Amino acid sequence: MNLYGHKVNQLARNFTKKLNEKISLLGLYSLQWAIILYLHEKKQCIQIQLCKYLGVEAPTVTRTLTRMEEMGLVIRNEGKDKRERLIKLTEKAYEMFPKWHQAAQDLKIEAISNIDRD
């Protein structure tokens, strides 16, 4: 019986749990961090792009973006039509990014520290 898929899923769940423990101290959770990483790289996008990238349904992304907007981390502006909303990071998010990134990097280093290089 092949359990690789299950083991990869469990590893990802454990990593996400540990990530939440680290970045929640800085006011974020993993889905919010994933959105921030995407927007940091892309500069702006529409919500459907986020849904596709994250593999998450629109209502979940809408709720998360609303919370992030209330926290002052994202701005949603009208796009080409009233249904399309352009999303981008705020200055506050750009200022906090190095702290969040460092916490994520620290976890990555911790996670791979006991893995044999070979």
Q: What does this protein look like?
A:
- The radius of gyration is 16 Å and the shape is globular.
- It starts with a helix and ends in a 6-residue tail after the last helix.
- Helix 1 (4-24) crosses helix 5 (91-112).
- The chain is 65% helix and 11% strand.
- The model has no long low-confidence stretch (mean pLDDT 87).
- The protein contains 5 helices and 3 strands.
- The protein has a domain at 29-101: Winged helix-like DNA-binding domain superfamily/Winged helix DNA-binding domain (Arc Repressor Mutant, subunit A, Orthogonal Bundle).
- It has helices spanning 4-24, 30-42, 47-54, 58-70, 91-112, and strands at 44-46, 74-78, 85-89.
Fraction of residues in helices?
Answer: 55-70%
- What structural category arises from helix and sheet content? mainly alpha
Low-confidence stretches: none
Gyration radius, rounded: 16 Å
The largest pleated sheet is described as:
3 strands, antiparallel
By CATH, the topology of the domain at 29-101 is Arc Repressor Mutant, subunit A
Outline, from the CA principal axes?
Answer: globular
- The number of helices is 5
Q: Judging by the overall fold, what is the CATH architecture of the domain at 29-101?
A: Orthogonal Bundle
What is the element string, with H for helices and E for strands? Answer: HHEHHEEH
- Quote the beta fraction: 5-15%
Task: Output mean pLDDT.
Answer: 87
Quick one: CATH class of the domain at 29-101? Mainly Alpha
